[in-house]
């Protein structure tokens, strides 16, 4: 993934240096030290609030309040976008129209139809767009996908994924106030949720692994959805989503910000010839166990999470590398289609009887809101590979009373295909 030492460093502009953007700062400064790139500007109207602001200034890197201001004074071969979701499409379009290739953080956009326009613009300008799903650039995931495509596992039978990532009130108040929003003030879709932001990678990964090429993802054809919220936000913080692909395989996704317990991603993918599992807490990486007893260790999907940046830097200079980019616009669209399809599914508000508030922070004002029966229900649904409403245990009874399951949504009809 290294650039040829004789090649000129790639010029880069970074949009967003707070939050996740801080990781881009670290990666790009390291890549500068390795002569892979030259960071010629950062764009952030609140740059001074970032913990990376001082080191950027110490390096003499210009700081701009807007992307327009940067391009009025400078140029960049690559634009890295780590801005809020509502800016993904307009910033990508602006950067490409001003001569830059783009790597934009996930999700692709708040509106799935933007993918069509972005793909067309990429073709018109000759500039690539990388969607920043880091698991889609990870060596372990890509090795597993090659084996799936080569037929080693046979047809998929079912997939299931679970993530319990509690988030306090400060998480939903961060930045400019876009967290948990359905739309921006101007009507631009955001659809920020646990499934479209923090845990989006793991929903996307199931579709990505089932794509029929190394840089494609399978399209969901129908989706079941159960959405809940316990925080005072517009969108959901808890979900059970089951997608079906064209071959009928169910892909179950269980994710929440509303438990006391923090449980990092786990998954089990079952195929005709074996199963593949991962537990982030186990330290064993992705392991496949074949029906004949063979075991295969693929590695840790969380290793080298910023390798996507080096994919982008190499692709700027190398046409062959550009053709092999694993996660482009079309690769990200299936995830966007799923999120778009469930955009109007009713969200169940958590009744007070099921709510627990846990103080936090210096003054106890940073509240963690918890749905009491959810931890056990999520784990049981994962074990049984079913939706929350399909459980029949006593623990989940109160939860089932408030759920508003919507089953069998046609993704094609919902996205207007």
Description:
The protein has 417 residues and is α/β, with parallel strands linked by helices. The chain folds into 2 domains: 10-135, 3-Layer(aba) Sandwich (Rossmann fold), CATH 3.40.50; 141-302 and 332-414, 2-Layer Sandwich (Dihydrodipicolinate Reductase, domain 2), CATH 3.30.360.10. The protein is built from 14 helices and 18 strands. The protein has helices at residues 21-33, 53-58, 67-73, 88-97, 114-125, 139-149, 169-172, 200-209, 307-317, 319-323, 329-341, 374-384, 397-402, 411-414; strands at residues 10-15, 37-43, 63-64, 78-81, 101-104, 129-131, 156-164, 220-229, 238-245, 250-256, 263-271, 274-279, 286-290, 295-299, 347-349, 355-358, 368-371, 406-410. Strands 7, 8, 9, 10, 11, 12, 13, 14, 15 and 18 form a 10-stranded mixed sheet that branches. α4 runs parallel beside α5 (114-125). The chain is globular and about 65 Å long. The chain starts with 9 loop residues before the first strand and ends with a helix. 49% of the residues are buried. The model has no long low-confidence stretch (mean pLDDT 95).
Give the arrangement of secondary structure elements.
Blueprint: E1 10-15, H1 21-33, E2 37-43, H2 53-58, E3 63-64, H3 67-73, E4 78-81, H4 88-97, E5 101-104, H5 114-125, E6 129-131, H6 139-149, E7 156-164, H7 169-172, H8 200-209, E8 220-229, E9 238-245, E10 250-256, E11 263-271, E12 274-279, E13 286-290, E14 295-299, H9 307-317, H10 319-323, H11 329-341, E15 347-349, E16 355-358, E17 368-371, H12 374-384, H13 397-402, E18 406-410, H14 411-414
Helix pairs in contact: 4-5, 5-11, 8-11
């Amino acid at each position: 993934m290294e650039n040829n030492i004789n090649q000129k460093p790639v010029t880069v502009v970074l949009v967003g240096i707070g939050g996740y953007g801080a990781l881009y700062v670290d990666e790009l400064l390291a890549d500068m030290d390795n002569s892979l790139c030259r960071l010629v500007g950062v764009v952030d109207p609140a740059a001074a609030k970032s913990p990376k602001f001082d080191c950027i200034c110490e390096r003499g890197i210009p700081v701009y309040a807007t992307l327009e201001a940067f391009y009025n004074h400078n140029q960049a071969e690559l634009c890295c976008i780590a801005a809020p979701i509502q800016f993904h499409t307009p910033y990508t379009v602006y950067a490409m129209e001003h001569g830059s290739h783009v790597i934009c953080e996930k999700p692709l956009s708040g509106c799935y139809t933007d993918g069509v326009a972005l793909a067309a613009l990429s073709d018109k300008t000759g500039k690539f767009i990388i969607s920043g799903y880091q698991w889609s650039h990870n060596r372990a995931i890509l090795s597993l996908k090659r084996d799936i495509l080569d037929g080693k596992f046979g047809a998929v039978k079912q997939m299931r994924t679970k993530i319990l990532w509690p988030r306090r009130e400060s998480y939903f108040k961060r930045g400019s106030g876009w967290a948990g929003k359905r739309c921006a003030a101007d009507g631009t879709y955001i659809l920020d949720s646990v499934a479209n932001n923090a845990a989006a990678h793991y929903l996307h990964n199931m579709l990505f692994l089932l794509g029929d090429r190394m840089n494609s993802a399978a399209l969901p054809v129908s989706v079941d959805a159960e959405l809940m919220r316990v925080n005072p936000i517009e969108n959901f913080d808890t979900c059970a989503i089951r997608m079906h692909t064209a071959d009928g395989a169910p892909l179950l996704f269980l994710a929440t910000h509303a438990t006391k317990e923090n449980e990092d991603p786990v998954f089990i993918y079952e195929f005709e010839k074996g199963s593949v599992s991962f537990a982030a807490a186990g330290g064993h990486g992705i392991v496949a166990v074949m029906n004949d007893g063979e075991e295969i260790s693929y590695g840790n999907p969380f290793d080298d999470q910023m390798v996507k940046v080096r994919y982008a830097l190499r692709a700027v200079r190398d046409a062959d590398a550009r053709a092999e980019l694993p996660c482009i616009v079309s690769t990200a669209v299936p995830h966007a289609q799923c999120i778009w399809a469930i955009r109007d599914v009713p969200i169940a508000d958590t009744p007070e009887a099921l709510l627990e508030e846990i103080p936090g922070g210096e003054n106890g004002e940073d509240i963690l809101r918890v749905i009491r029966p959810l931890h056990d229900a999520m784990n049981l649904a994962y074990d049984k590979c079913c939706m929350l409403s399909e459980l029949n245990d006593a623990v989940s009874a109160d939860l089932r009373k408030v759920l508003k399951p919507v089953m069998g949504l046609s993704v094609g009809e919902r996205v207007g295909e």
